[in-house]
Amino acid sequence: MIRRPPRSTLFPYTTLFRSADEAFAIAKGLGCTDFVVKAQVLAGGRGKGTFKNGYKGGVKLVFSAEEVRDATAKMIGEYLVTKQTGEKGRICNSVMVCERLYHRREYYIAIMMERAFAGPVLIASAQGGMNIEEVAYENPDAIIKEPIDIIEGLSLPQAIEVANRLGLADRADEVAQHFVNIYKLFIKYDSSMVEINPLAEDPKGGLYCLDAKFRFDDNAEFRQKDLFQRRDWTQEDEKEVEAAKHTLNYIALDGDIGCLVNGAGLAMATMDIIKLHGGEPANFLDVGGGATAEQVTEAFKIITSDPRVHAILVNIFGGIMRCDVIAEGIIAAAEVLKLKIPIVVRLQGTQVDDAKALIAASNLRILACDNLDEAAKMVVKLSTIVGLAKSAQVDVKFQLPI
To answer: N or C terminus of the chain: which is more exposed, having fewer CB within 10 Å?
Structure first.
């Protein structure tokens, strides 16, 4: 018999498995009959998702060790499709199995960095569970927000006050200590968010964390090496994984116009102006302020690896980032990759004249624009033309007179 952890741990018995037989053996020895089996897939909507083998639901309630084994066998190694994954789905390499607990109340607890408070804030609600977003929208007074001084930390009196406002005055000291411990965890692991939803109370008064979500500051990787080594790259887009290797910020989108920009704000503005003129961005890609020509070349490789990309817009404002470095990367990428799709380049700022001279001397068919609005209009038109040609199965070779 496997000894369950004491109730004071705040968690039901939970274990991660990578095989159905292993899950069966542990569940058999647990000494209970009701279990929850959760596919470990990095996406929301798992419970309503469907595996490509036809098995429905990435979160299953089962009632024997045999059912644990059967559910696990149908999940591991299969792709789960949810509302967040797209039709490709995400591979399930492991499942989490825990004893099912029956509860009478659900609370929402989170600590996160919040711009409005210029630091961390404890957020709580007595209306926890699946629909916390609806609660926040329909009844904002039901959401408690307690700002935390990041130097002083979460004090016990603060935490007790939140516990009282949640209706837990009869056990405020106990609950408050949990809040303080969660904040300690938040700081220790350089978190940007720790969310428990729900924190559930069972019929005997026991408090349990039934689901949790964590986010961590990417900039803290150097001191959280053990934590970041646990990252499951199989759950992420292959292009995003490749971008991370080259210190590029890349997010795949569903459009057909590739974007290469320096700075997150400028990248967002670039995507907005593309949409303003009727186009759809294929990605968010920020090369940052200190990119090298090699990084720019890798960025082009990543963008053009998406077969849906019909044109590329490069929008660089050279402050820290030198325009001539970007130009060298564009030229190298165009030559190495033998690009056939149109490239529209808008460069402004440091060394911009040198950059324009490099592009002109390269004899490559790259369209330069000084005005962002004109550049966006041009790339949308060119992408539309290339898309039409491809749909007609016409081989496209992009050429412009110099």
So the answer is: N
The question of whether 55 is a catalytic residue gets the answer: no
Residues in a beta bridge with 209: 199
Angle, alpha carbons 243-277-299 (nearest 5°): 15
Computed over every residue of the chain, the mean pLDDT equals 87
Question: In sequence order, what are the beta bridge partners of 62?
Answer: 35
Q: Which of 13, 55, 108, 183 is catalytic?
A: 108
**Pair type for strands 105-114 and 191-201:** antiparallel
- pTM of the predicted model, to two decimals? 0.74
- pLDDT, mean of residues 100-122: 93
Q: Which of 145, 171, 149 is nearest to 160 (CA)?
A: 171
Mark whether 108 is an active-site residue.
Answer: yes
User: What is the SS3 assignment for 92?
Assistant: coil
pLDDT band at 196 (very low <50, low <70, confident <90, very high): very high
DSSP 50-83: EETTS-B-SEEEESSHHHHHHHHHHHTTSEEE-T
Catalytic residue among 78, 114, 146, 195: 195
